[in-house]
Amino acid sequence: MNDQGASTDREGRVRVVGTAHVSAESVREVEAAIEEERPDAVAVELDEGRYRQLQGETPDDIEPGDLLRGNTVFQFLAYWMLSYVQSRLGEKFDVTPGADMMAAVDTAEELCIDVALVDRDIQTTIQRFWARLGPLEKARLVGGLVFGVTDARGIGLALGVAAGVIAGPLLGLFGPSLGLTVPLLTRITGGVLLALAAGLVTHTLADTVLDPNDALVAAGGVGVAAGLLGGVGLGLADGAVGALGPFVARVVGSLTLGLAGGVSVGLVTGWLAHRAGYVAADADELDDFDVEELTDADVVSVMMEEFRAFSPAGARALIDERDAYIAHELIRLRETGRDVVAVVGAGHREGIEGYLDAPETLPPWESLVGTDSGGGVPWLKAVGVLVSVGFVAFFVLLAMAGVRNGFLLRLFAAWFVVNGVFAAGLARLAGARWDSTLVGGLVAWMTSVNPLLAPGWFTGYVELRHNPVNVSDIGTLNELLSDEETPIRQLVAEMFEVPLFKLIMVVAMTNVGSMIASLLFAVYVLPLFATEIGGVDGVTRLMIEGARNSAELLWRIVT
């Protein structure tokens, strides 16, 4: 398969057959065209992975090394998107997407005709599509796939939670100048404690008489009421919080305020956007398709059309790119002197034939393959480099200023422990093995220094060595997520039994733990150490002094 043979003096001929419907009629059209032409080769719009999938083969297990190289995310996205679109097409039209392509393969094999797979690797297509999405487009796409969060209100809530996680530590850092005194934060922390206690008791009692979803709602309502009235309003838990110390009140209180503010702003913004007419891609839009009007049987093109709302330019460019890629492959076959029947989705036929008639208009092959950086400024890499340089510079400048080695060692130990505890703790909470948990905790300090690394990759690496994961688990996840009757708790428990979901949660929770730890360390722990050397002003003065001493040392070395 895909054997293009040696070049001859005679140039071959290519007939492009565009399959017009996802139906049995397309299958018959493909079979008739091949039997009529009896070409030297049949080219189909498939890549190796999709061909194997249509043949019923199970995708390869995810390799641990791929996880560390960052390749796995696109493998996830590729198979998840394909599974998503294929399952919906199958449910809507009672057909198997790709049946026309497999009919071409089967007919060619029956007639002893070579078969060529001429489409670009689906993982490359997904990576290039992903690289061209903006941050909000990525959030909408992932939210739509995983949680169905595609409308303005859902996006507002998700962004509000993210903003709250960042705002909380900032309130802890600048709170005193904003009037956030320790007594006020103590009241808020007491409200949190009472809310948790009341919610837990209510859930335990309600769970015996209500269904799980209603029990959660009741626990949430009672908990919030108890926290606001008893904790914040009356200060019933002030004594308990006072016994824990002002540090706990400052941490919990500021984080609570940040999350409450972020969620409130996110919900209001989402509601206003929804009222203004902002509507994201509706998951039920496929129901409007008519099988007789669906003019492209290529499931990847249907997938791109399905997600065009997320990034019109990105989807359009990738569809055009695939026209050019397939045309390159067909021209290579034609130059070997063979006659070819190319079976493609009807939506690609015009573009491919245009390139076949005018090969000089084809974009360079190199521009169609490999990864795509997105064409913008690599902000993530730039931030990663700055954070790494800043972390090293902080310790070096303090050392050059004459700060005692014992102080620096204790500061580093605190950084190591805080990162390790949070990363390992959340990994274990997600169900990680003990050895995976330990690895994630041990490397968390290092990966926090460089945001381009992630402790979850290392935790996942160890998990995969013991529990292989196959991307075909995505089909199982899709089935579970489509279940609207199973109670939430049972559904979550069943999802954790799927190896792929468990791996995703272990990796994600390890990374989240490390990020939370870095914020908490910078805002709450570092100021405690700073008091030993004159507070924040003292740290600034020492870093300036360290920079001056470093410059003088370099000058003496140079001169």
UniProtKB/TrEMBL annotation:
The regions listed as transmembrane in this protein's record are 155-178, 184-203, 215-236, 248-273, 382-401, 407-426, 438-458, 503-526
- Which UniProt keywords are present, listed alphabetically? Membrane, Transmembrane, Transmembrane helix
Keyword Protein transport attributed: no
Q: Which CDD domains match?
A: TraB_PrgY-like
Q: Read off the Pfam families from this record.
A: TraB_PrgY_gumN
Q: Which domain of life is it from?
A: Archaea
What is the protein name stated in its UniProt record?
Answer: TraB/GumN family protein
Q: Whose protein is this, by species? A: Haloplanus ruber
